[in-house]
């Protein structure tokens, strides 16, 4: 069975850091791009970042709103993608989903999400 | 990157057809056939219901159809059913190696 599971969310003070994990199972993890998408309470979906698989290797891309504060790393043997969130802001509070991309904008497998709360 | 524009809400009676629009620019929707649509019920993760403008994943009802004209993509739902009540989001690839979602449309079945 194909699935993704996020973890690492929690309550964090503004300015602190947090690392989220996305563990995959049931498909060749290293062959797929994986997105992070977040959803603030009561709001819509916002694209955050992607660990893309390109012809000449992997590359990470970030939304303007998080570039410079967020980082990603991929551990293919562990089938895990990490999202490092630094200098947390109140507006980073959201449910963070990871999603597999089977094309270019074909997010066909989603995790259940992990919740990040930013509060002092 | 500005969010794609979707109507906040669309409603219809059971059996009717509705259409949700998703308007962007030449840099995203108009420039690529990489538009997909997601259905999200309260408290659940989004679910892919259309990709590459007009392709349905396996298991998605043929009551859902997608199209695109210029900078606007559309999702049509025919034979509206109570189970279709949910939030719907479009997303497009952009020319800056990013992806942009629409603001979401709440579909209500009257």
Explained architecture:
- The complex is a heterodimer of chains A (120) and B (110).
- In chain A, the strands form two sheets. In chain A, strands 2, 4, 5, 6, 9, 10 and 11 form a seven-stranded mixed beta sheet that branches. A four-stranded antiparallel beta sheet of chain A has the order 1-3-8-7, with no helix packed on it.
- Helix content of chain A is 0%, strand content 57%.
- Chain A has strands at 3-7, 10-12, 18-25, 33-39, 45-54, 57-62, 70-75, 80-85, 94-101, 107-110, 114-118.
- Chain A is globular.
- Chain A is an all-beta fold.
- Chain B has strands at 9-12, 18-23, 35-40, 47-50, 64-69, 72-77, 86-93, 99-101, 105-109.
- In chain B, the strands form two sheets. In chain B, strands 1, 3, 4, 7, 8 and 9 form a six-stranded mixed beta sheet that branches.
- The model of chain B has no long low-confidence stretch (mean pLDDT 97).
- The A-B interface holds A 35, 37, 44-47, 50, 52, 61-64, 97, 99, 103-108, 110-113 and B 1, 3, 32, 34-36, 38, 40, 45-48, 51-52, 57, 87, 89, 91-93, 97-104.
